[in-house]
Automatic annotation (TrEMBL):
Source organism, top-level taxon: Eukaryota
A Pfam family this chain is assigned to: KH_1
Protein name, entry field: K Homology domain-containing protein
Domain K Homology: 15-85, 112-183, 210-279
PROSITE patterns xrefs: KH_TYPE_1
Amino acid sequence: MSEDDILPSLETQPGLINFRVLVSAKEAGCLIGQNGAVIDSIRDETATRAGISQLRPGTHERILTVSGLVDSAAKALSYFAQALVNASSETPFSYSYFPLKQMSRIANVEGQTTVLRMMVPNSQIGTLIGARGLRIQQIQRQCNVSMIVSKSFLAGSSERLVELQGTVDNLYDAVRIVGRCLLSGASSSEETVLYVPRPSSKAAEVPKPATTQETVSFRDDIVGALIGKHGSRIQGVRKVSGATIAISEEDGTGERSFTISGSPSAVGKAKRLLAFNLEREEQRRADHETHASNSFHSDEKGREDENEKGREDENEEGREHENNLAESRDGDPSRKDIADGDDGPGESEPADGTSRGEDDDQAESVSTAA
């Protein structure tokens, strides 16, 4: 298949076309010009109708429309592209809010390039791409431009983006061919839902959640534990809860205030985390005191056990001493007499040393004499 069979002929003028191009709000200002000077000049020179949509609140996009004969509309778009080139040389444009990411900042074609983001009805994408992508590939080769087609629709519409990057002259050639391709594949039976710029997720105004503030107080002796080493614990509470926590200085009252600010849910979560940390610290201290008390009682009991053991040892020594003494007496007869009470004067013998027999004789003599 020859190139002439792939692309439509440029010798014919197929009719009127309406190009829709997505531009940023900043680009739109450059295309309009001071007091509309730029857009008016392009209209007059190309005999086309051109306009730019109003900027909707919360959006960053506007739509440039150019209507006329295909070649005239293509010429008008090339003039608008030149205006973008002139403006971008002073301040590069940003396309962060567009559905497609911007093409490489490094141009893949020679010369000073710019980008046109054409919005094309999905029903006409097939005729632009061609069988197995041959048509769009041929446009890029023949016109020395880069093209990319979005896979998804623009939000709330049946349109898709077709981005063309190239020099102004090359874009003009490409748009002439693109216009002819689109007209050849136009369908009157399928209704097109046009894209309308909407607030982006970054630009949409989201009502700020209601904020609240609460103050809780803690004893001076517990504040250090709630703050943590190098502030690690209080920073963790701030991070997890999303609340702001300000801590007062010591004022001699014995307490310090924690002022918690944020959404109601954030403040509530911060209070719960602080309460948890407080309970954990108090439990740690209670366990420490219990351990210390148990250690004290254990020491006391140890001393009592030692004293009791000492008394038992003394008793044991006393019993051993008595046993030793008894064994000593059993082995020595003289010691046995002493043990039996025969080691001195007793009831059986008078204290004066006389024997019991002598006393009896004297007593008997006295009785006879009487």
